[in-house]
Design a protein that fits this description.
Belongs to the NAD(P)-dependent epimerase/dehydratase family. It holds the Pfam family Epimerase. Pathway: Bacterial outer membrane biogenesis; LPS O-antigen biosynthesis. This is Paratose synthase. InterPro entries: Epimerase_deHydtase, NAD(P)-bd_dom_sf. The protein is α/β, with parallel strands linked by helices. The protein has a domain of 210 residues: NAD(P)-binding Rossmann-like Domain (Rossmann fold), CATH 3.40.50.720. The chain is built from 8 helices and 13 strands. It has a 7-stranded parallel beta sheet with strand order 3-2-1-4-5-6-11, sandwiched between helices. Strands 7-10 form a two-stranded parallel ribbon. A two-stranded parallel ribbon has the order 8-13. Strand 4, helix 3 and strand 5 form a beta-alpha-beta unit. The radius of gyration is 20 Å and the shape is globular.
């Protein structure tokens, strides 16, 4: 199979690319950054398109490399935006993916796997964006409907809950907690009663593989949306308890030292449609154990290197 992937330099994208390469697929990347990690560097430079706004060059690249499926993972993620973030959010999450979609439709690609977020469903509502980021993800989904109706393309959108895993360079909750635990730090947090739904990255990658199988069988002019959830949300306090039961260093938390954010997600989205033939396999206990073990091993190596 030939895949065009946006967002391959991100956490989920790099893990997905690695899996698709292992399975013998041909990968083409579209990116706006020259920063490529080790896995991406395995891909031939001829298969990587650096988009600088030149749509004619994009057309030429796609004519030579028509993909079977376009997987859209690129995203600008900002939880609480400032006024200077608005233009970049709109371009990154709406304009940029629409330019790519229009180009791949012109070149003859009819299948798109899009990535949304559970934050589009605040208070478990059909549509209620938690933040402007979530609103931009919804807006792009609506734009995809035009191509579904007018060009008879097939789209599957995976609305993903919070993700975590090994070698996550994003400064997100789980990585922050594990790092703070390793250093036995005391951190200030909200009261901790909010629900969180954490999906291990290997399970997320498996969800994309299942979506690929599904879209190959989907009827023309269809747009199917599924939630990618651990199906076992827990409170933030419970997450810390589990981490402390696993980690040799205990995380010290000053609960209630911070207020809840505006539009804090207290209860996660429940009314989603589950992706057929997919279930999460990695429990939160197993996932955290992987991270703690890796972190402990790194610390041991670092200590040994310093001693030498």
């Amino acid at each position: 199979m030939r895949y065009l992937i946006s967002g391959a330099t991100g956490f989920i994208g790099s893990n997905l690319v690695a899996k698709l390469l292992d399975n013998g697929n041909q990968i083409f990347l579209i990116t706006r950054t020259s920063r490529l990690d080790e896995e991406i560097e395995k891909i031939s430079k001829e298969n990587i398109f650096f988009f600088d706004g030149n749509e004619d060059a994009l057309d030429e690249f796609l004519k030579k490399n028509v993909p079977d499926i376009f997987i859209h993972l690129a995203s600008l993620y900002i939880t609480q935006h400032k006024k200077e973030d608005v233009t970049n959010l709109l371009y990154s999450n709406i304009t940029y993916p629409t330019i790519i979609t229009d180009a791949i439709v012109r070149c003859g690609c009819k299948k798109i796997i899009n990535t949304g977020t559970s934050w589009q469903n605040f208070n478990n509502e059909k549509y209620n964006p938690t933040c402007l980021y979530a609103a931009t993800k919804e807006a792009f989904e609506k734009l995809l409907e035009f191509y579904v109706k007018s060009q008879s393309i097939n789209v599957i959108t995976l609305r993903i809950f919070d993700t975590y895993g090994l070698y996550d360079k994003r400064k997100k909750l789980v990585s922050m907690l594990v790092e703070s635990s390793k250093q036995s730090l005391q951190i200030e947090m909200s009261p901790g009663e909010q629900e969180i739904d954490l999906v291990y990255v290997d399970d997320v990658v498996d969800a994309f593989l299942v979506a690929i199988e599904l879209i190959l069988k989907s009827p023309n002019s269809s747009h199917l949306t599924y939630g990618i959830s651990s199906e076992k949300p827990i409170t933030l306090k419970k997450l810390v308890d589990i981490l402390n039961s696993i980690s040799p260093q205990k995380l010290k938390v000053k609960w209630g030292a911070r207020d809840y954010r505006d539009r804090e997600v207290m209860y996660t989205w429940k009314d989603f449609i589950r992706l057929p033939n997919w279930k999460p396999k990695v429990s939160i206990e197993e996932g955290l154990r992987k991270l703690v073990t890796s972190s402990t091993d790194e610390a041991r190596i670092e200590k040994s290197t310093t001693a030498k």
